[in-house]
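Quick check before the chapter quiz. The format below is the same one you will see on the exam, so make sure you can read both the input and the output lines.
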Amino acid sequence: MLKSMAKQAHILMVPYPAQGHAKPLLKLAYKVASHGVKVTFVDTGSVNSKPFATKSDKVAKHNNVVFVSVSVGVKASEDQTQAETTMERRAQARNLIDLIRNRKDSEITCVVADVTMGWILTEIAEKLQVPTVAFCPLSLGSLALICQIPKLIEAGTIDSNGKLVRSDEVISLSTDIPPCKATELTWKDSRKIETRDTEKSLFGLCKTVQETAESAEWIVFNSSKEFEPAACDLNPRCLPVGPLIESEDSKRTSGAAGSFWLEDTSCMDWLDTKPPESVIYVAFGSAASLNQHEFDELALGLETSGHSFLWVVRSDLTRGTLLNYPVGFLERVADQGKIVEWAPQELVLAHPSVACFLTHCGWNSTMESVGRGIRLLCWPSFADQFHNASYISDIWKVGLKLTKDKSGIISKHEIKTKIELLLSDKSLKVNAANLKKESQESVLPEGSSFKNFEKFLNLLRR
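Here is the expected output.
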């Protein structure tokens, strides 16, 4: 068992306000709270006007986690100068410092903040001398690539604004870390959405991440040494404590913790009616999107596969346009498919009827899948998703990548064909089962993630 705490630690956790960042940090909050640590979790904002804390209060109270709302100014204005942005961030950081100083219940003993918000850690460490820890929701491999930014600029691969100079470059850090094409660097956006400067925003975040990673005393990850041994060896200050997933015997009501979206649990009853390993689960996370042509091809690919499918279709999945299904599609698949706006994903992935997951390859979805032994069909679109897809298909060999045709579209034929290949390849199933076993062993006593979590707890009580 983990050692009991000499005194009750009280940590302040500060997430970046996006589901892919906030949810794994909240899971970590629940985990440390179960070991006698008090957690004050800062609600820094919302996504799609859906408040985060209201989805989590019921579970949080049970786990000794308290929510507070504090503005931390995570989004700088496009026309702000660097000096203005720095001044604003320092002013907002004072909100957190005041919160820490005014806690009447117990003293804050440590601050854990998302790696994209390292400036908060710097301000608090300087002003209060409170121990600080960064939390990274990406893979260790993705962080290692981001930390190459200065070298990529020096080598002339990118300019100081992150724009490609030599697009044919391939960045390779180790034989066990997937190589990365320059066109698929974390801040590059293959979607080419013209309504927002996504690449500029992502590069700014990546620069912050790189700076935080270089200065942080410790960085906690939702990963494990078994998944990324080479990447772990690159940075001795990394603490992979994952995978952070619900236990398989969790109740069906537990999945809502940390979700910005209202989960439709009716899909669980629908899954109960299906044979084992017969359902294709399809979801693209909270941010990835499709154009109408891609959406149509996906719908028709699922239909022509002949397999039952559970498809998560957010209201904004087709890039802000109204959802339009192919003519007659909903009527034809009425008995074949189930469509919901949001699903309790971990519960879905743990269900015996699910055969595979067609995914955008976000890191949380990746961890939740490999921790369940689920095979993956990869449809990445931006950020770290391409690198995650390479881990899945090339390193772990637990899934396949979907390939675009000459017009840049993933066709219904490609989807149907890859589903059949994925489900018929026995080696992928064996590899997925082996990876699941490794993930389970890593969080057991004497496992690598267990030991790292114990080290993390010891950091909290210093």
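If your answer matched, good. The chain is about 40% helix and 15% strand.
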